[in-house]
Amino acid sequence: MTDFTSSFWGYFIAAIAILGIVFCAYVLLTQMKVKLKKGEKAQVTGHVWDGDLEEYNNPLPGWWVGMFVLTIVFAVGYLALYPGLVVFGNAKGWTQEGQHQEEVAKADAKYQALYDKYLAMPVTAVAQDKEANEMGKRLFQTYCVQCHGSDARGAKGFPNLTDHDWLYGGSPEKIQQTIATGRKGQMPAFGAAFGEEKVRDVANYVLKISGNPAFNEVRASRGAETFKQVCVACHGAEGKGSQTIGAPNLTDKTWLYGGSEATIVETVTNGRINQMPAWKEFLGDGKVHLLSAYVYGLSQDKK
């Protein structure tokens, strides 16, 4: 398999590689024709540099020719054994994916006993184990910091894992499910359906129920009606959300994208789509279990 979308580029690379070797061999053969008979002296070719540097027609040194030949032989052997010719495959059947899987298999065999030890323990117990916590931390720093940050406090669009505000639940089982199978949250866009004024009304109502004093009472009163007609389906009558479907609580001060009027207007108008990738297939049950325990412990430390 190749990463190229067209087979042309595979043939192009193969042609360049083969022609390069053929050209090197041609240059070597043509330059090896110069021979000096016994007792014969090399003659100047007529090429002169800087007034007194002349070029002689000496034959190529034997050691240099030998190294050049070895280079060509190595190149041919490499292209035959490894996929340097891309579309023609290779004698060893080597692929970078295959090598990666082989190395992963060796690592798993080496550490599987340790993973099995922790798999037999509940997440809450693993979270209290110092060695397991260090292993989970290293896994987090490798796979999770890109989104959640090195301190696990997240960023805009990526949740803080050190508090007690959870979109889908913070129990060990829910955290493990989230890491293993991933999550996909979606807030529909209501800009076209509501219109600009109604969107601002709803945004002010959300500001009000979240305890933000920067809201307009008139708009909030109008927005309450719209909220009760449309938004309660996900966020509930009191706006406290639902962990079952990942609808956020709108009555606290924890915001995934921001809690200003402008940001809420943007969210209601355009909607939001956010996805947490599934890690079970890539990491395996043992590493997911350790990660779950580490993440669970992050919020427990804050109690």
Provide a short characterization of the protein structure.
The chain is mostly helical. Helix content is 56%, strand content 7%.
Describe this entry's structure for a reader.
This protein is mainly alpha-helical and 303 residues long. It folds into three domains: 7-88, no CATH class; 105-182 and 277-300, Orthogonal Bundle (Cytochrome Bc1 Complex, Chain D, domain 2), CATH 1.10.760; 185-276, Cytochrome c-like domain (Cytochrome Bc1 Complex, Chain D, domain 2, Orthogonal Bundle). Helices cover 56% and strands 7% of the residues. The strands form two sheets. It has a two-stranded antiparallel sheet with strand order 1-2. A two-stranded antiparallel sheet has the order 3-4. The longest helix is centred in the N-terminal third of the chain and has 25 residues, at 7-31. The radius of gyration is 34 Å and the shape is elongated. The model has no long low-confidence stretch (mean pLDDT 91).
